[in-house]
Every structure is written in C-alpha cells, then in structure tokens.
Amino acid sequence: MPDLTYECRLPGLVAGIDEAGRGPLAGPVVAAAVILPRQGWPDGLNDSKSLSRTAREHLLNALQKTALIGVGFAEPEEIDRINILGATMMAMQRALLALPVTPDSALVDGNRAPDLPCHVQTLVKGDSLSLSVAAASIVAKVTRDRLMVSADKRFAGFNLSQHKGYPTAAHRAAVADLGPSPLHRLSFAPCAAARVNRS
Q1: Positive or negative: CA dihedral 79, 141, 50, 4
Q2: How far, in Å, CA of 74 to CA of 150, rounded?
C-alpha cells in the first residue's frame, strides 16, 4: 500500500501529481495535483486502477472534503498539435497551477515531469507508492470518466460511457463506421485512418 515515505523526504508542502487518459482514442488527458492534509486523509487511498469504480467515487468525495485539489486538462486538439507526451505535461502544469496554494515540492508519477514552479521528483509507479500520487490518480481517473460518460450523450454511437474512449474493438469499429467525432484524437492511427477512408 502507498504511504508518505516519499513525501517525507521532500521539502515543505508536497503535491502528488498523476494523469488519466494517455491511451484513449477520444477525450482529453486529465491531470490532478493533490496536497493531502497532515492527518485525516481518507482510508483506502491506492492506485486508481486497483480500485473499483464505487471505491474511486467514494474516495474522490472524501478527498474533496479534506485535501487541496487542482485539475488540469489538455483537449484533443492540443494532443493532436503537440503530441500526447507534451499534452500530458501541459495538463500536469495546469493541475498544479490550479491548486489554491503553490507547493514547495511535487511528486510526479512516471519518469518524466513538466516544468513546474517548485522542486520536482519523478516516481515510477508512484500511484502505488505515494499516498499523494495515489490520491491524484483517483481524482484524475474519476474526473475523466465522468467527462466521458457525459460526452456519451452528445456523441451517440460510440458508447463512450462504457469504454471511456479507450481503443477497444467495439470503439475502433465505431470509429471506422461513423468516422471520428470532434472528441477524437485525429493524430491517433485508428482515427486518422477512419478520417482518410471517409474523405
């Protein structure tokens, strides 16, 4: 289970940062920055991928009452313009800047970090090691899932509420049949191919 070992090694106020949505064919990449309280954070914080949807929703609600949270987005057109890695870094920057205070340090999940106005440390598999990064993974995942469920009502036929934009066989087939929607990432191969085939 994640703990505060890495947070305790860093100076001052520490934010955990993680993202959701690098792999999907549709929708934004969403990043979250979370500063946990010194005590009283919700029990059960862990990598969002290891938690059920119900648990993630419960933990997000609890975090909104106890933690400082910033969320950042990079939209599909930004992903297409600067590539998914650049867009992910942009979303992380926006998440940290959306916090109500600027932390002294940031723990960023993975092995690459954006340029941030504080001390930065990357942490591979940080969402399973650090409580702050685990909290950020939950916020990012639930926020993005909610966006995709809402988008399902506007973009019928893609079944976004089920696969959340990830490249399942059914989603690929829908893109090939219907063509990409305004929510799709045109620089990703299945969307690019469908666009060419329909032109």
Answers
A1: positive
A2: 17
User: Please, which pLDDT band fits residue 26 given cuts at 50, 70 and 90?
Assistant: very high
Per domain, the residue ranges of the chain are 5-152, 160-198
Cβ density class 43-53: b for 16+ within 10 Å, e for less: eebbbbeebee
Q: Which amino acid is at 76?
A: P
- Whether pLDDT at 196 is above 80: no
**Any idea which fold 5-152 has?**
Nucleotidyltransferase; domain 5 (3.30.420)
The candidate with the shortest Cα–Cα distance to 68, out of 144, 23, 114, 17, is 17
Instruction: Please check the confidence at residue 44 and state whether its pLDDT lies above 90.
Output: yes
Vertex 126 angle, CA 124 and 130, to 5°: 145
